[in-house]
Specification:
about 90 residues; Alpha-Beta Plaits
Length: about 90
């Protein structure tokens, strides 16, 4: 394995993300836009998992609520690494 591939693998292993989950719900474009602007981050979602939204970086539930100006019920779970079992799909910003 070359050095670039090794660095990419290491970066993926240490990547900090926050998984937002809304049971039985979907994330609307206006909410995603508010999160991106308010937290100054990237997001990723999957049509196969509309109830999940992955944020680049670690954020608390309070930080996401502030960016959304309130909102519907959801959970916010910080994770590290693309191989985490808590990650429902591989985000597009990888």
């Amino acid at each position: 394995m070359n050095l670039v591939a090794m660095q990419v693998t290491e970066n993926q292993r240490n990547l900090k993300m926050t998984v937002l989950y809304r049971q039985g719900g979907v994330w609307h474009p206006s909410e995603i836009s508010q999160l991106m602007r308010g937290l100054k981050t990237e997001t990723s979602r999957s049509p196969k998992h509309p109830e999940y939204l992955v944020l680049f970086g670690h954020y608390t539930k309070e930080e996401t609520l502030k960016a959304l100006l309130g909102g519907q019920a959801y959970t916010a779970v910080p994770i590290v690494g693309v191989d985490s079992e808590k990650l429902p799909f591989v985000p597009g910003f990888i």
